[in-house]
Amino acid sequence: MSTSASALAIEKQVELLTGVEDKYGGIILEIEKYMDSEVFLSLLRASLSQRKQQGKRAVWIKLPIEFVNLVEPTVKEGFKYHHAETDYLMLVKWIGESADTIPNNASHRVGISAFVMNEKREFKRRVASSKEQVSGNSPTGVVDEIDTEFVEILAFRQSHQSFFTKSDLLFMCMLRPLSFDIQKQDREIEAAQWMSVDDYAEQPFIQKHDSFRGVAKVCLTKSEKEYAGFSPVPRTTTASGKTSYLYFNSRDVNKL
User: Which domains does the chain have, with CATH numbers?
Assistant: First the structure.
């Protein structure tokens, strides 16, 4: 096959690298079937040329983990890693005439500290290991469902360079238990039980550390007085029709 005929054949196959346009002037190409790396590289180059002529600003390529053979040619063509999940890698290349405005990957990880208190002013606490028997703390971790009803965000904390150079946002949430049965996760937790909020706050471990002492003070204030945290108020986005939540001190602010 001649060079011109080969080029024509490649142009006809460019549709293999079609994708979905984003609202920022870019396009996301999803590779859905296996390709030889050399064939892929030819198609990628032709596709990049075509997208540039169309005035696209950025080209994203979503590579499923099983197509790892395509990572090297993609990087050699000037793409850079943007983010990865368990089943795919996302790469991107800026092809616009203006300055590169591609945002960095997410800079924060979000976690929760669950302040689960029942009507008896008892607090659900867990002990991570036998060494913590005298201390114990509230259930914490990355966001996941537990058998409770969300009430409000009492406070939140930010720390930098915490987890793989990411910043960490920890939200202290007040939750209302829907069940009083405690089911602990045996692999990570030594014990779990209900204890009074006062006993929790008086633990030597809590009193020794500023951050834990601060959390305990907020919890005590909430249990004894009127302390207004951030309550969720549903908002509807006009353009998309989706519902989001605005969190604020709804007690002290006129209804929006």
Answer: 3-94 (3.40.630.30), 108-224 (3.90.79.10)
